[in-house]
């Protein structure tokens, strides 16, 4: 059971040609340029190589500031366009130091920023009753339409991606929510 409420879902998936094609179609058909839909959305363009995990985490956290405190970075950049937000991130030494030190840790060998990676992270969040997929490689979030349950809505989208590559076991899902009690 996933502890509730879930504030955001982070999804890791293989970046096969077919999945990317389907996602680009969803993006193209997305209505998130509608001002009413994206008014309160914090969206950041990814310009840093192999930082999709960091960008997904920022999307997940920044779109839940009523529940999470991130200091002044979000407040300082909330009114900037997605590309300028990432330029601010690139120049933010605190984030850069954290990203560089943590990306060198873990159980796998770290990769260079310009390495070709076959996986990608995105974040799902609910804003104004709309399920949004936040992917910094696009210019705006992908709108998956009206939704009342983040977990159910994100699961439906994730299932569609997994149906494209049903033989792959290289998927991972993380829910940002309250600590679970054991």
Please, could you describe this protein's structure?
GO terms for molecular function: cysteine-type deubiquitinase activity. This protein is α+β, with helices and mostly antiparallel strands and 182 residues long. It has a single domain, classed as Ubiquitin C-terminal Hydrolase UCH-l3 (3-Layer(aba) Sandwich). It contains seven helices and five strands; from the N terminus they run E-H-H-H-H-H-H-E-E-E-H-E. The protein has a five-stranded antiparallel beta sheet, with helices on both faces. A hairpin with a 7-residue loop joins strand 3 and strand 4. The longest helix has 15 residues. The radius of gyration is 16 Å and the shape is globular. The model has no long low-confidence stretch (mean pLDDT 81).
Topology, pairings included?
Elements: E1 8-14, H1 17-28, H2 35-38, H3 52-62, H4 72-77, H5 82-90, H6 93-103, E2 119-127, E3 130-134, E4 142-146, H7 150-164, E5 172-176
**Cα shape:** globular
| CATH topology descriptor | Ubiquitin C-terminal Hydrolase UCH-l3
Corresponding CATH superfamily: Peptidase C12, ubiquitin carboxyl-terminal hydrolase
Judged by helices, strands and strand pairing, the structural class is alpha+beta
- How many structural units, i.e. domains? 1
The CATH class is Alpha Beta
Kindly report the average pLDDT value.
81
Radius of gyration: 16 Å
Sheet of most strands: 5 strands, antiparallel
Strand content: 15-25%
Helix content: 25-40%
Give the beta-strand count.
5
Query: Strand order of the main beta sheet, please?
Result: 4-3-2-1-5
- Helix-strand pattern, N to C? EHHHHHHEEEHE
Number of DSSP helical runs? 7
- Give the uncertain stretches in residue-range form: none
Distance between the termini: 12 Å
Name given to the CATH architecture: 3-Layer(aba) Sandwich
